[in-house]
Specification:
alpha+beta; Pathogenesis-related Protein p14a; three-stranded antiparallel sheet; two-stranded antiparallel sheet
Length: about 140
Amino acid sequence: MGTLADESRIDEMALNHSRAMAGQGYVAHDAAGFTTMDRYEAFGLADRCRLTDNSDTSIREGEALETVDKKIAGQNYTFASDGRTVPIDDEVTAGRAAVDTWFATSETRQKLLLEEASVAGVGVVVTERGGIYVTVDLC
């Protein structure tokens, strides 16, 4: 990817998207009038973050480089990986639950394990009502 400035931009992009999802009250790749590709372009990352898939047969960009989720503070979450049930009581537990959810689904697991991705931008926003919005953008 290059510089620390590039890495902070992808974190900022992910955080901005989590804020937009929190503002609209639901999880989606499109939020506040912007698609995933719009955000990569606005942050100057569209060209740099186009990645080939693990088989080198196609290009991944836009939504193929982003995962999103929402957890609710105070609710219990049962981890698919080991069967533990824990309360979601902070951002760390919410983040772990989101990653567990993503890895339990083959499509999102494949996104997160793209061999060419060298940076993951992470944005987590907690609302006053307990909604925890998580975005991961890859580059």
